[in-house]
Amino acid sequence: MNNHFKSIILQKTGASSLVEKETIQKLWSGYGKIIRVALENAPLESVVVKHVQLPKNQNHPRGWHTDIGHQRKLKSYEVETTWYEDYSKHSKARLPKCFDVESYQDETLIILEDLDAAGFPLRKQSVTWKDIETCLEWLAKFHASYLGKVPKGLWDIGTYWHLDTRPQELEVLEDTTLKNAAVAIDKKLNNRTFKTFVHGDAKLANFCFSENGQVAGVDFQYVGGGCGMKDVAYFIGSCLNESDCERLESKVLDTYFTYLHKALGEKNEALETEWRALYRVAWADFHRFLKGWSPGHWKINSYSERITSEVIKNL
């Protein structure tokens, strides 16, 4: 990290000195890293810094390094900085406080609360129903916070798999029935009465858990407009096997909408009717992306295939 950014961190936190303690994660395709920075003589012991650097050599894990991919990544980091500067403070759902966003030459620094130190040190690879319920409550609070808001400076349509941003994956999709239905699925999902902001990458790995069962969410590069079912379907697909996805579908939706009405402060039956009918459409939309991006992916299963066929028949 350059001295300019180090001085910004010291200034914003009131620390006398800092040490780069550990790299938490390298960003996708070599776009920088997320690091934990220890602070001396400051109210906080540490902060988490997302340091975005434009890569000299792009290195995508699945071979998708193209200008389209590069531009999508660039926009995603611009979106995240806008999110933290203009929108994050309005969230009813717990997420890291942002202390500053700073750009300098071809680099950007986002200084965030260290959620580990704030009481959310746990990351989970497998979940209980209670964990799922807690994350559904988080999504409901998040969606309630931005219902009816215009995503100015964010993605017009959120999620990293949105059709308009994924022409290559559609081009190589071998399932011609799904390929031909992709635009209609996208329209059905997005031309709706009730819209909010979606997290856009609400997988289990982006939730931080506390010892007493609370949860906070991270990673807002693909936040934007849309129907909340996109986040719910994607989250469930990220943490349950196919039989549980099917067995628990009604329970998942009942739980989510109970929390959504609570977060809104009143029951909105019109919203629930519209969104509940879009859960499987959202599932099919992600399935379209996945089959083009990584045809052998473990998430491509008979439940997803059945749901997608049903959605296409009902278009």
From TrEMBL:
* Domain of life of the organism encoding this protein: Bacteria
Specify the CHK kinase-like domain's residue ranges.
Answer: 110-266
- Ranges in a coiled coil: none
SUPFAM superfamilies annotated for this entry?
A: Protein kinase-like (PK-like) (SSF56112)
Which SMART domains does the annotation name? Answer: CHK (SM00587)
- InterPro entries from the entry? CHK_kinase-like, EcKL, Kinase-like_dom_sf
Q: What is this protein called?
A: DUF1679 domain-containing protein
Q: Which organism is it from?
A: Hyunsoonleella flava
